[in-house]
Amino acid sequence: MNKVILLGNVGKDPQMRFVEKRPIASFPLATTEPARRAPNGAEIPERTEWHNIVMTDSLAEFAEKYIRKGRRMLVEGTLRTRYWEDRNTIKHTITEIYVISFEML
């Protein structure tokens, strides 16, 4: 099973692109774990993770119109990892969450 559920804040307005006339929106989403105290008494600081969110088709069109930096969202989707090589033959890897459903909070 490949399922991801995230609750966080949008980091930038969505960027739109079209692949064979198919709209695709992408934007970063920040999730934060609050600071806490470990069982041994040590303080563990707040931790923020950034996730690459991808919406396609009608979800992308909605994202372009309504999703803005700072909005709180609940996102449900699947993980996908892409690999590519740039002009300098440097290999790159990116992991993205492809959205199935979401809620604006």
Widest sheet: strand order? 1-3-6-8-7
Question: What summary fits the major beta sheet?
Answer: 5 strands, mixed, barrel
**SSE order, one letter for each helix or strand:** EEEEEEHEE
The number of helical runs is: 1
Number of strands: 8
Mean pLDDT across residues: 95
Unreliable parts? none
Compute the separation of the termini in Å.
26 Å
Q: Characterize the overall form.
A: globular
Radius of gyration: 16 Å
Strand content: over 45%
Helix amount, in percent?
Answer: under 10%
- SSE-based structural type: mainly beta
Write a structural description:
By secondary structure, this protein is mainly beta. It has 1 helix and 8 strands, in the order ββββββαββ. It has one helix spanning about 55-65, and strands at about 5-10, 15-20, 20-35, 35, 45, 45-55, 70-85, 90-105. The strands form 2 sheets. The protein has a 5-stranded mixed beta barrel with strand order 1-3-6-8-7. The protein has a two-stranded antiparallel sheet with strand order 4-5. The protein is globular, with a radius of gyration of 16 Å. The two termini are about 25 Å apart. The mean pLDDT is about 95.
What characteristics describe this protein?
single chain; 5-stranded mixed barrel; two-stranded antiparallel sheet
Helices and strands in order:
Blueprint: E1 4-10, E2 15-19, E3 22-33, E4 36-37, E5 43-44, E6 47-56, H1 57-66, E7 72-85, E8 91-104
Parallel strand pairs: 6-8
Antiparallel strand pairs: 1-3, 1-7, 2-3, 3-6, 4-5, 7-8
